[in-house]
Structures are given as structure tokens and as C-alpha cells.
């Protein structure tokens, strides 16, 4: 019998199918960004822990410089996959794949870097925030400070008003959509700039509830019928060059319950609230958007 956490994990995406992990290996943007960030963050001889190892590829990147990598994976199918793949690759012997729950596992020794890629757009579905916060409490209780470096180090989340086409060969269906970044989508019209609603710094305590209320200036008139959610993961901060190594999730577009016509110059008041790791419908149901007098609220900061 599955316990409550296992049931929730299956529902919310913790047991991602094997083929989906294979798709992640073929995502060149994701792979290149993580490889670059891990190469920077993991120094020669370091001890590394990966929480939620999947195929083991991120642990493999770490093993090229680390002395030891602990790779924790809860899904037994992925444990077998990771062990098989790591045995085929250079320095795979440095990686110990451990079948354990990331909510409970602690390494037998202090580590220098913790890699955790349980990342979904807007920190929904997967348990990135909850797993890291649980780890920090347990790690400090066992080893004391300082905490390891986390990868990603930070996350910037933003919301953007858009007009989204929902016609599918004459069939009107407002649905949740995921879109690649850096691609022009003919059925998508940006009505305003993205507004930052949360900045997460994993070296600091992270609240499990994201609640935002702010204003966004409408720059282009049209039918406002969706909000696009943008998640930029700051994988590593390269202090020597005053730059960052980033990975941008696919955009997530959520249809609004009550579409409205807007004009350039309108001020849009937006509010929503959801729990980290929660379901997409929980965020979608909480979104409130209405045009307000421009003097009521100042615009939210734009997403860069």
C-alpha cells in the first residue's frame, strides 16, 4: 500500500516516467546550462549530494571534478537507469546511487554542493522548495554550519498578461499550455511586460506559500485571456565575472476564467496565491485580474 506522501508524489509528478527523463537528456538548453553551472560550482576534490538524481546525468557532471557524489533517487526504475548509465561513463564509479527518499536522506559526511533539480514552472507540482528546506533543517542539526552551496542558487519568477489563441481546428478549448522560450508563437500576443512576483534565494529560508498582488501596465490592447508564468533558474553565480549561469523553464500559460478587453495604458491589477509544490489548478483558480484606475497602484518591477 502507498502511504499518503507516495500517493501525492505520484499525482504531483515525483515519479516521472522514465521516457520523460530521457526527453530531458535531449533538451540541449537544459543540459548545457547545468553542465556549465556544475563545472563552475564543483571544485576539484569536492563532496557533492544530488537530491532526485533521475538518470544520474547531473551527478555525472559533478563526478568529473568531485571526489565523491551521493546521488539520491526515490523511484526504483530510475535507480536502475542511473546505475546502468553511470557504469558506462567516465568517473561514474565516483557516484553512489542511493535508493532513498530525499525528504529523509542525509549524507554520511558534510558536502560542499547540493544539486536539486525538482523544478517545475512557478515551483509547482514538484517538491523543490519543500525538499531543500527540509534538507537544510536536518543538515544543520546533524553537521552544523555552514550550509553547502545549492544548485540552483536562486529562482526568479514572473507573470505576464497575454492574449492566447485557443482555436484548435475550429474547436475552442482554453487549456494550460507550455511553450518553448526563444520561439515566436503566432497565437500568442504579449499585452504587457512580465512582472517579477518572487525571488528565491536558496541560501536563505524560503516560504512555502507564494502570494502576490500588484499592477502591470498594459502596453498593447486586445483580449486579455491568459497569464504567462516565467521561471528563471539562476544555477550558479559567477562572482569573478559578475554574471550568472541561467536556465529558463518553458513558459506556462494559464487561461483566465473571465477574459476581458484591455487597451494600451490600462493598469491591470493581478493577485494570486499558491503553495510551492501544489497543483497547477490551485494557482489557476486563485488568479484574479481586473483593470483599475492607474493611480491606485504603481507598476510591478519588470522581469529582466
From TrEMBL:
Gene3D superfamilies: Vaccinia Virus protein VP39. GO terms for molecular function: methyltransferase activity. Pfam families: Methyltransf_25. GO terms for biological process: methylation. Signal peptide: none annotated. Keywords: Methyltransferase, Transferase. CDD domains: AdoMet_MTases. Residues 48-137 form the Methyltransferase domain. It comes from the Bacteria. This is Methyltransferase domain-containing protein. It comes from Massilia agri.
Amino acid at each position: 500500500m502507498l502511504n499518503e506522501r507516495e500517493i501525492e508524489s505520484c499525482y504531483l509528478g515525483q515519479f516521472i516516467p522514465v521516457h520523460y527523463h530521457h526527453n530531458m537528456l535531449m533538451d540541449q538548453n537544459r543540459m548545457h546550462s547545468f553542465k556549465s553551472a556544475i563545472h563552475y560550482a564543483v571544485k576539484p576534490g569536492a563532496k557533492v549530494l544530488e537530491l532526485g538524481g533521475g538518470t544520474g546525468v547531473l551527478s555525472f557532471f559533478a563526478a568529473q571534478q568531485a571526489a565523491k557524489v551521493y546521488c539520491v533517487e526515490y523511484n526504483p526504475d530510475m535507480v536502475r537507469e542511473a546505475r546502468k548509465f553511470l557504469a558506462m561513463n567516465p568517473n561514474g564509479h565516483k557516484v553512489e546511487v542511493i535508493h532513498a527518499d530525499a525528504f529523509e536522506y542525509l549524507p554520511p559526511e558534510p558536502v560542499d554542493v547540493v544539486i536539486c533539480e525538482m523544478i517545475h514552472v512557478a515551483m509547482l507540482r514538484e517538491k523543490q522548495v519543500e525538499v531543500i528546506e527540509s534538507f537544510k533543517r536536518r543538515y544543520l542539526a546533524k553537521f552544523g554550519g555552514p550550509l553547502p552551496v545549492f544548485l540552483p542558487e536562486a529562482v526568479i519568477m514572473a507573470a505576464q498578461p497575454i492574449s492566447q489563441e485557443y482555436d484548435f481546428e475550429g474547436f475552442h478549448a482554453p487549456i494550460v499550455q507550455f511553450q518553448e522560450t526563444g520561439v515566436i508563437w503566432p497565437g500568442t500576443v504579449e499585452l504587457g511586460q512580465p512582472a517579477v512576483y518572487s525571488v528565491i534565494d536558496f541560501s536563505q529560508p524560503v516560504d512555502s506559500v507564494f502570494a502576490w498582488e500588484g499592477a502591470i501596465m498594459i502596453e498593447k490592447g486586445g483580449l486579455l485571456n491568459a497569464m504567462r508564468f516565467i521561471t528563471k533558474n539562476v544555477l550558479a553565480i559567477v562572482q569573478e565575472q559578475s554574471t550568472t549561469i541561467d536556465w529558463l523553464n518553458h513558459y506556462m500559460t494559464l487561461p483566465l476564467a473571465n477574459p476581458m478587453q484591455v487597451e494600451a495604458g490600462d493598469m491591470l491589477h493581478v493577485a494570486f496565491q499558491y503553495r510551492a509544490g501544489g497543483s497547477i489548478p490551485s494557482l489557476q483558480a486563485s488568479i484574479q485580474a481586473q483593470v483599475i484606475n492607474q493611480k491606485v497602484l504603481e507598476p510591478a518591477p519588470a522581469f529582466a
